[in-house]
Amino acid sequence: MEEGIGGLRHLYMTVFLSGFASLMVIPAITDITMLALCPGQDECSLAIYLSGFQQAIIGLGTVVMTPLIGNLSDVYGRKSLLTVPLALSIIPLVILAYSRETNFFYAYFALRTVTAMVCEGSINCLTLAYVADTVSERERVPAFGILAGFLSASFVCGTLAARFLSTASTFQVAAFASMLATIYMRVFLKESLPGRDGTLRQPILKGGSDAIEEDGYSPETIEVFKKVPSAGDLICLLRSSKTLSQAAIVSFFQSLAEGGLQASLMYFLKARFHFNKNQFADLMLIVGISGTVSQLLFMPMLAPVIGEEKLLSIGLLVGSFNMFLNSISWAVWVPYAATLFSAFGFLVQPSIRSIASKQVGPNEQGKAQGCISGISSFANIVSPLIFSPLTALFLSEEAPFYFPGFSIMCIGLAMIIAFVQSTMIRASPISSHKISSIISVDST
């Protein structure tokens, strides 16, 4: 189904609408959580711990669900599986669109936790696999960058909307946009079913010499994909390519840092500089604009010239500097200035995904992207367990020494580890000979 980047316009619009709905509520959710749990306070350990607990539970669910959904999409199609997380993501938004009172917040919190187990990584995983189905390897890096750029553009538009809308209107608009994304996807997006164009390859994990049926898959292959992928399956996939294993390690530490940032930064800024919804929105607006420019302009231009491996290393190095600068913020303008470096951090995930996609055949894209997403989700389980208590401790009066941004500095160290590993990656597309070798080894 290779149609080139132009064939992705409906996918890009779906990603934009879905991202707009989910991201525009972020500036408001910290204030809503604090109001429900600790009214009238700027520092609340309970809110930090509860948010960290939610993040860990969501990560635990996505570790299982994302590889499973990626696997199933290799058989039943990307569009069919994409319907599930898009539809589920509507429910929590509708609750807070109706009311933000304490009881409704708890209902939102519970349903958001459950639905995010399916939605959090699945939409990203499926859209990346759809891109890999649709474009050639030569165009894949720019296509991944443009996809991430549309997500960043949705972030900018959503943040702008949150900046000027009331909290009630923000959730109402978000709920409507989420519904619109699902309807648009179902009406306009073409199904992508890998292997139906005559280019089917045997799966890396499970191979055999049985004849393929008319629909493109043998009963044994379908049975394999219907199963929840085991840890052994994922290990086998990672062992099939040293580059894929290295990309997975980088993804783990980068996601560990990203999850820590999500669990810590807003509460750090709330306690340190008394940020509110509008200031969060302003900060996120700068981040979103930087990411949009980076992914829509820099990545398509730079990736063919210097390669995604170097882009990955640059993004991680500059991203770590961003964290170190945030950790020592001495004035309210410092977090704003530090966000200018985030433009390079947005190069990281598209680069990792592009490297991973080139290590497997066209019939394993869902599996590979699901594997990387599952590893990222596992990092999101570990991250709040580390950084939420660390943030709460150093923002409290019981801190062993005065350094409110200590947890942010530790996030920067995690990114440095990812950077060191990224410098060892030497990516190359998987060859047909390598696939055949893996199949023969696995079948014996």
TrEMBL record:
Membrane topology: Multi-pass membrane protein
GO CC annotations on file: membrane
Main location as per UniProt: membrane
Domain Major facilitator superfamily (MFS) profile: residue ranges: 7-424
Subcellular locations according to the entry: Membrane
Membrane-traversing stretches: 12-34, 46-69, 81-99, 105-131, 143-165, 171-189, 280-307, 327-349, 370-395, 401-420
Keywords: Membrane, Transmembrane, Transmembrane helix, Transport
GO terms for MF: transmembrane transporter activity
Protein name listed in UniProt: Major facilitator superfamily (MFS) profile domain-containing protein
